[in-house]
């Protein structure tokens, strides 16, 4: 599968470069070249979409931070914070050929147990599963569209 597969997201203004036969993408958040993998291709498109189309500020996004869970170190893909630096959206990105299975949902649920974001998004760039969390009822409501930034 090509790294540059067409996704079900708007075209992103990504800067690609090549070094020693490998392709790199200029990360919109880390502001440095990152080795382009299929998962990174999806992540950068989601960052671009959530920023340019949905209005979330780049400075409210954090990428691949480490958390401790049951004695293991894990890294979530992307979290978007609100003005009070409370997690608003937790995203798990997968390569386009990876199905958004029960195992992927368990992965984001593990991160969610620590992060407690009101929205969860799982995406492989082709399929997007978006949920709103009702903490009082301990339920998930499937959403038909991505959340939109409502801050200042």
Give the terminus-to-terminus CA distance. Answer: 41 Å
User: What would you say the CATH architecture is?
Assistant: Alpha-Beta Complex
Measured as a percent range, the helix fraction is 10-25%
The overall average pLDDT, rounded, is: 92
Instruction: Name the structural class.
Output: alpha+beta
**What do we call the CATH topology?**
tt1808, chain A
CATH class: Alpha Beta
Give the C-alpha Rg: 15 Å
Report the portion of residues in β strands.
25-35%
Number of strands: 11
* Poorly predicted residue ranges: none
Describe, in plain words, how this protein is organized in 3D.
By secondary structure, this protein is α+β, with helices and mostly antiparallel strands. It has a single domain, classed as tt1808, chain A. The protein contains 2 helices and 11 strands. The strands form 3 sheets. A 6-stranded mixed β-sheet has the order 4-7-8-9-10-11. A 3-stranded antiparallel β-sheet has the order 1-2-3, covered by helices on one side. A hairpin with a 5-residue loop joins strand 7 (78-81) and strand 8 (87-93). It is globular. The mean pLDDT is 92.
Features:
single chain, 152 residues, alpha+beta, tt1808, chain A, six-stranded mixed beta sheet, three-stranded antiparallel beta sheet, globular
Blueprint (SSEs and pairs):
Blueprint: E1 16-19, E2 22-26, E3 33-35, H1 38-53, E4 61-63, E5 66-69, E6 72-75, E7 78-81, E8 87-93, H2 102-115, E9 119-123, E10 128-134, E11 139-143
Parallel strand pairs: 8-9
Antiparallel strand pairs: 1-2, 2-3, 4-7, 5-6, 7-8, 9-10, 10-11
């Amino acid at each position: 599968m090509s790294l540059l597969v067409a996704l079900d997201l708007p075209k992103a203004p990504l800067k690609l470069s090549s070094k020693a036969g490998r392709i790199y993408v200029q990360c919109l958040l880390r502001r440095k070249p990152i080795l382009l993998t299929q998962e990174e291709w999806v992540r950068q498109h989601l960052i671009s979409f959530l920023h340019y189309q949905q209005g979330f500020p780049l400075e409210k996004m954090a990428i691949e931070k480490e958390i401790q869970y049951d004695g293991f170190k894990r890294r979530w893909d992307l979290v978007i914070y609100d003005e009070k630096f409370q997690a608003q959206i937790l995203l798990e990105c997968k390569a386009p050929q990876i199905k958004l299975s029960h195992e992927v949902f368990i992965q984001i649920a593990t991160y969610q147990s620590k992060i407690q974001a009101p929205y969860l998004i799982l995406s492989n760039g082709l399929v997007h599963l978006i949920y709103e969390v009702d903490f009082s009822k301990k339920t998930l409501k499937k959403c038909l569209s991505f959340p939109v930034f409502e801050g200042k």
